[in-house]
Known about the structure:
This protein is an alpha+beta fold and about 675 residues long. It folds into four domains: about 1-125; about 130-235, PAS domain (Beta-Lactamase, 2-Layer Sandwich); about 245-405, Reverse transcriptase/Diguanylate cyclase domain (Alpha-Beta Plaits); about 425-665, EAL domain (TIM Barrel, Alpha-Beta Barrel), CATH 3.20.20. It is built from 23 helices and 26 strands. The strands form five sheets. An eight-stranded mixed β-barrel has the order 18-19-21-22-23-24-25-26, surrounded by five helices. Helix 9 packs across helix 10 (about 295-315) and helix 16 (about 520-530) packs parallel to helix 18. Mean pLDDT is about 85; it is low at about 15-30 and about 100-110.
Amino acid sequence: MWDTDATHQFTTLDSLDKPPTTNDQPLTSRSRQQQSAAREIRDWLGRSHFELLQKREPFDGWRASFDSPDGRLRNFESSAAPRWDRSGRFLGFRGITRELSSDLQKNPGFDDREAWLQKILLEQIERVSSVGAWRWTLENGRLCWSDEVYRIYEVPIGTPMTLARAAKAYDRAALDMLKEAIERAAAENRPFDLTTEFTTERGNHRWVRAIGVPQEIDGEVTGIFGTLQDMTEQSAQHQHIHDMAMIDTLTGIANREAFDRYLDMLTRTESRQRRSAVLCIVDLDNFKDVNDQYGHEVGDGVLRAFARRLSRAMDDQCFLARLDSDEFGVVVNEVEDLSETIGTLVKQLKEVGKGIEVSDIRVDVSATVGYTELSGCGLEAGSLLRRADLALLEAKRDLKISAHGFTARMEENFNRRVAVRKEFQRALNEAQIVPHYQPVISLSTGQITSMEALARWHHPKRGVLSPSVFMEVFNDHETCVKLTNVMLEHVSSDMRTWLSRNVHFGRIALNVTAADLKQPGFALRLIGLLEQHNLRARHLTLEITETAIFGGSDAIVDQLQLLREAGITIALDDFGTGYSCLTHLKSVPFDILKIDKSFVNDMMRSDADRAIVRSLIELGNDIGYTTVAEGIEVKTEASYLREVGCTSGQGYFFHKPMPKSEIEVVLGGPVNIAT
């Protein structure tokens, strides 16, 4: 028997004159005669079978003849198998080289050592694959293991084994699973294949795959034969991959997948364990501004620092994960006082958000929390997350608070909003949404100078509905875009009709949203629609709120610039209610400033509102904008606005919004206002 290393150099060599034993000795301790024979065998193998050796595959029955040092012609036959370590690294060959007698050369099939060689090959296969064989006999309960199974269990080879002794390695759950599989295999002649974990007699933790196949005689199961494979390394690799899939790559904390699984596990065990817990959704306020102002690299750094700080602030009863770009999930367990728990979380969020420094940039981050209790609700994870999201939306609406808990009213309002949205989408498809036109009046002449097209829902059962009824739909971008398209088609058709009848309408103003302007090519499609209806750009005004513009992107400003260059008038709606600064009035291409009705309605009772309105009008006039006051309801309001230089006004004092058939009656006629 002999061994080689990975370069095919002999490392051990047993006697060439007797059967191989397990007592291998180093080649250097052998006699010169044996070393010479070994070199000749090695040289012969290398010359004759080098390519086959390089394949590192088992070989059997390689024969050669050569002169020995004593002058005799000797005939040899070699068989061997490759050796590998557990990592798959090639170690060399282990083999047998035997001298052939004349009888063996004539009939080599009668060699006693064929069985020995098969045993060696089988052992090598077991060691390489970490797979051992086992057999259990029902009659006497005897359990037989191959050597590799002994190695896997770390039990001395040859130790008598029983199921009872083997069972000591498994915990209760694994043992029950294994016992059930064996009993079913014996009773129902059913094979099994299961993976489980156990602890070896040396205390090492391992995973194994056990396969069992019933053996039968005359239709009766007499035992079970199977294999046992050490899966510890594969299991560790799988666990590592699984763990990586559960980690947020940016922050290093748990990700959405891990959070969902944890929450699902918690909801399934909460009812049995009767423990109190609260689910919180934490959203960073206006975090988009950080990315827009400093870039995403700084934004990512802020998120990493925030997550790291918050993770350190949490105790062992909390589970923290990053759910979305700037949204985190927190589960707090063992809650005794809900108000105190939420108060503590809010304080922690304030502390961890202070003075985050990234690339010499200091950023303060605030957060808003929506939360819901898990205890006793009996809901699945998805429903709980929706409740926390609804609470978060409520907290976002109320700028005075930083945390809000879920209430049943939120669920009712949510369901109502969903129902309204679905019904409104159906109304769009069934042509129930049409424009009503409200005139805009010159405060100096009383003439109609333009009109605003306002969406009205002609409900088959509830009559004409104003936007206050379906305000929820404006939170859905897809619905907003579809509404704008429907209104544009109606308005373009109506303008074409009035032009063909020589009816003067000035301009028609239509509201557009950020969702519309964020669509690639919106401006070009709108210009094409006007050309399709043979309309000029000066016939159309687009109104957009300042929050939509200044909370949007540069792409919105680019679209507005393109529309204005085409001749379409651009109006800033609800001016004074948003958060724009005066520099934006220079950078964004406006023609008209529309003063919000909230100032107009109170200006005759409030010196402050009156001063604001006067200042806004003066500002617009100085910059060169046309000023339009919205929501004029009484004569005194119209008179004051005209006195302070407001160009135009609209409101119920002049005309309410009217359908096409009614507005055609008043188009072109003067409107009497206070002089």
